[in-house]
Amino acid sequence: MGKAIVAYFSAEGTTAKVAKNLARQAGLETFEIVPAEPYSAADINWKNPLARCNKEKIGKKDVPVRDTLEGFDGYDTVFLGFPIWYYGAPNIISTFVKQYDWTGKRVALFATSGGSDIGKTEEKLSPSFNGKGSIVAAKLFTGSVTKDDLKQWAEGILE
Ligand SMILES: Cc1cc2nc3c(=O)[nH]c(=O)nc-3n(C[C@H](O)[C@H](O)[C@H](O)COP(=O)(O)O)c2cc1C
User: Fold this and answer.
1) CATH number of 4-158
2) Is 32 exposed, middle or buried (0-12, 13-18, 19+ CB in 10 A)?
3) Nearest atom, ligand 1, residue 18 CA
């Protein structure tokens, strides 16, 4: 088993909780994908057509990430977590993915949502990997997923 890490973006805390539990259960470090410009509550109010989240979505905008994942090259497996936004991964996730060389890496996507499935998220995100890396899983969790379930899922990927 190679080295693995849990990288995640969470705007409202649900994915963060799942990511931290997953990391704890699997004995892994976490890296939080934080936007260079933090999201306010108004920024993520998707009901407002003029909100930042809608502008980013419509404009297919990159969302700069504050920090660099140091030692990225040393990881074989990256668990990559995020909330489902507009039936897919938030733009910040594609920005994050495009920053690194995924050659030889295994990627396990996980997400939380308000009810949507993970659906075509993998298919939509996959061009950002530039033909490199391989997505080995894509799993939707509820905010109340148990630690045992997370442990089992992580072990299935890491074994
Ligand atoms: C901009 C935006 C778009 C969203 N789009 C969807 C969606 O398409 N389907 C869905 O089920 N939930 C959607 N949600 C709800 C989130 O996926 C859900 O609340 C998630 O658990 C939040 O995770 P977080 O607390 O880690 O940010 C959206 C939320 C936001 C802020």
Assistant:
1) 3.40.50.360
2) middle
3) 26
Which atom of ligand 1 is the closest one to the Cα of 87? 8
What is the number of the ligand 1 atom nearest to the C-alpha of 51?
Answer: 1
DSSP 29-65: EEEE--BSSPPPTGGG-TTSTTSHHHHHHHTT----B
Pick from 98, 44, 104, 89: nearest CA to 69: 98
What is the distance between the alpha carbons of residues 4 and 74, in angstroms, rounded to a whole number? 9
What pLDDT sits at residue 2?
75
- What residue segments make up the domains of the chain, in order of their start? 4-158
Q: What is the pLDDT of residue 114?
A: 97
Determine which helix (DSSP H) or strand (DSSP E) holds 26, and give its type and residue range: helix 14-26
Question: What is the rounded CA–CA span in Å between residue 75 and residue 82?
Answer: 19
pTM: 0.98
Whether ligand 1 lies within 6 angstroms of the CB of 114 is answered as: yes
**Protein residue with its CA nearest to atom 8 in ligand 1:** 86
The pLDDT tens digits for 39-94 are 999 999 999 999 999 999 999 999 999 999 999 999 999 999 999 999 999 999 99
